[in-house]
Amino acid sequence: RVVAFGTFALRYLPDVLRRLAATHRDVVVNFDQAEPADALDAVSGRRADIAVIDEYPNTPRRVDPEMSSFHLLRDRIDAYLPFEVDSVPQLADIPWVFEAADSDASAWARRVCRDAGFEPRVRFESPDLRLHHGLVVAGMAAALIPRMVFFGPTAPLLEPSVRFEWPGQLGQELHRDVYAVTRRGGHSRPAVAAVLKHLQ
């Protein structure tokens, strides 16, 4: 029983299941899509065996000490604009699209904007990063989009044309980390271990 957030599932789950079917025909996977906090609750409540979650810098998720986590990947995040700008203050005049206001992703995005020197004008909210991409392409909003949206085992979307070099500290790239989480000792079960192997 696997629970994962939408972008990861879209990009990686079909390929993981295809490879698992080739190596472990006896393992049956049930999947539910859920945001990371709900996914962790599902594992701790024994409604799922593996949760795939994301975590943003300086915004650690509270993980039950009875759980084990396995780092899967670091997903770089880029800023995309609907048109060119000449200075950081102009970023405050552009409409932005963020994830839901109560999400870790939104809290992180607001913090990096403020650290860069401007207050974002958030006009759109959605958990679906494909919509963020669509709003940038349509010229309606700026967005901070993880590369997972564009690159993965499945065919990539076309990137928006205006990528903005983020005005953070030199050498500090924007990113999130992705983990698989199980109950402590759960990874020793053969079926869970097989799924973890293909996730990794």
Describe, in plain words, how this protein is organized in 3D.
The two termini are 17 Å apart. α1 crosses α5 (190-199). The model has no long low-confidence stretch (mean pLDDT 89). The chain has 200 residues and is an alpha/beta fold. Strands 1, 2, 3, 4, 7, 8 and 9 form a 7-stranded mixed β-sheet that branches. A two-stranded parallel sheet has the order 5-6. It is built from 5 helices and 9 strands; from the N terminus they run βαβαβββαβαβββα. The protein has helices spanning 6-23, 36-44, 104-116, 129-137, 190-199, and strands at residues 2-4, 31-33, 50-55, 67-80, 95-98, 121-125, 143-146, 163-164, 175-183. β5, α3 (104-116) and β6 (121-125) form a beta-alpha-beta unit. The protein is 30% helix and 25% strand.
In short:
With 200 residues, the chain is α/β, with parallel strands linked by helices.
